[in-house]
């Protein structure tokens, strides 16, 4: 469906600039009818707004908002490769949550990106998903998200 950028505008959501890679990789890559994003951190203007482990320095609510930012960064990466309006559907989301010992709320944190995708893409935003707790993430980020997107 064309018009995803228009939908973002209607929702009052602006795509950020594509986040610069923090190592040797590209933000997103197309192969065939799919775009794979690299793991996207919740960078805003090149900086993390929140650092630490969820369930300790970072609340689950803060982490959920950070996951939404990761999702926006992933969509910006997709847009930079194929243009957002060529998205047919979101196929898969993988979310990594830097988790304090005993924290098991990773699925609720990654709902931040899943709810964003539903808001923007409706049924085409329904996706398979993994939400994984990890010990550490790059730069001390509380969350990282990657996506696989089918394009027309």
UniProtKB/TrEMBL annotation:
<dbReference type="InterPro" id="IPR035959">
    <property type="entry name" value="RutC-like_sf"/>
</dbReference>
<dbReference type="InterPro" id="IPR013813">
    <property type="entry name" value="Endoribo_LPSP/chorism_mut-like"/>
</dbReference>
<dbReference type="Pfam" id="PF14588">
    <property type="entry name" value="YjgF_endoribonc"/>
</dbReference>
<protein>
    <submittedName>
        <fullName>LysR family transcriptional regulator</fullName>
    </submittedName>
</protein>
<feature type="domain" description="Endoribonuclease L-PSP/chorismate mutase-like">
    <location>
        <begin position="6"/>
        <end position="143"/>
    </location>
</feature>
């Amino acid at each position: 469906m064309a018009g995803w950028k228009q939908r973002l505008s209607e929702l009052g959501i602006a795509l950020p600039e594509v986040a610069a890679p923090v190592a040797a990789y590209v933000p997103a890559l197309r192969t065939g009818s799919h775009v794979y994003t690299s793991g996207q951190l919740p960078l805003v203007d090149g900086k993390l707004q929140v650092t630490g482990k969820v369930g300790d320095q970072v609340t689950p609510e803060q982490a959920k908002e950070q996951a939404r930012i990761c999702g926006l960064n992933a969509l910006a990466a997709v847009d930079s490769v194929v243009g957002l309006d060529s998205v047919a559907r979101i196929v898969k989301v993988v979310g990594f949550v830097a988790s304090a010992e005993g924290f098991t709320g990773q699925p609720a944190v990654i709902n931040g990106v899943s709810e964003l995708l539903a808001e923007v893409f409706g049924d085409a935003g329904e996706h398979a998903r993994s939400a994984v707790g990890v010990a550490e993430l790059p730069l001390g980020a509380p969350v990282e998200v990657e996506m696989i997107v089918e394009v027309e």
